[in-house]
Amino acid sequence: MKKSVALYLVFLLAFTASFGQQHPFEGEVRQLSQRLDSLGWSSGGTVFTGSSTIKLWRSLSEITQGKEVLNTGFGGSKAADLERYLYPLVLKFDPKRVFIYEGDNDLWADVPATEILNSLNQIVNRIQLVDPQIEIFLIGAKPSPSRWAKKELYQFFNQELEKYCQSKEMVRFIDTWGPLTDSEGNARPELYIKDQLHLNEDGYTIWSGIFKPYLN
């Protein structure tokens, strides 16, 4: 199937499913997509998308080494939200690489890990329907102090996510848990802003170091 036909079918399915309905993030997604269109972009670039940890990554451009990278993160999102808005946030840009950070907010909202993985699988399948050669990176949940009460659940999700990535062609897992914890495996509050959920500048410096090898 030609890429243009596959892309049209994916868009048509997404549009039909949401027709006549009002969904969270609709306005934000529309504005983000329009802003990126106004700035201009070229196909074959890299897209980072997902929840607020991606959206707030202001220093992302510093590690891209001149490559075109689009940040389509939308704060508060869950995996099912990205699944719904996959066309305007990812597919329309015809990328060669996609980095996805979803699952953090889902787990805190008591969405079962199996349901999160199902949404991520649907996302991966739709991306690969358009182009099986797109590199997909699924980012493990980070160890936020404010969500430490569910540490075991987050670690279980990361383990299952890594297993899933190992079972799929062109899909890789990126661990962010280990690099952001101390030698005893505890969260590091000094890497987060006051809410102890979102990374501060020092946290993003470590975060950037995690991703540099994947952008070479």
Describe how the helices and strands are arranged:
Blueprint: H1 3-18, H2 26-39, E1 46-50, H3 52-55, E2 69-71, H4 79-84, H5 86-89, E3 97-101, H6 104-108, H7 113-130, E4 135-139, H8 151-166, E5 171-174, H9 201-215
Parallel strand pairs: 1-2, 1-3, 3-4, 4-5
Brief summary of the model shown:
By secondary structure, the protein is α/β, with parallel strands linked by helices. Helix content is 45%, strand content 10%. It has nine helices and five strands.
β-strand percent reads: 5-15%
User: What is the arithmetic mean of pLDDT?
Assistant: 91
Report the major sheet.
5 strands, parallel
Instruction: Write the CATH fold name.
Output: Rossmann fold
Q: What's the alpha carbon Rg, rounded to whole Å?
A: 17 Å
Helix content: 40-55%
Report the CATH architecture. Answer: 3-Layer(aba) Sandwich
Which class in CATH terms? Alpha Beta
Looking at CATH, the homologous superfamily is: SGNH hydrolase
| Intertermini distance | 30 Å
Count of helix runs: 9
What overall geometry do the principal axes of the alpha carbons give? globular
Helix/sheet category: alpha/beta
Any low-confidence stretches, pLDDT <50, length ≥5? 15-20
Which key terms come to mind for this protein?
5-stranded parallel beta sheet; 9 helices; 5 strands; 216 residues; Rossmann fold
Tell me about this structure:
This protein is of the alpha/beta class and 216 residues long. The protein has one domain: Rossmann fold, CATH 3.40.50.1110. It is built from nine helices and five strands. A five-stranded parallel beta sheet has the order 2-1-3-4-5. Helix 3 links the parallel strand 1 and strand 2. The two termini are 30 Å apart. About 3% of the residues have low confidence.
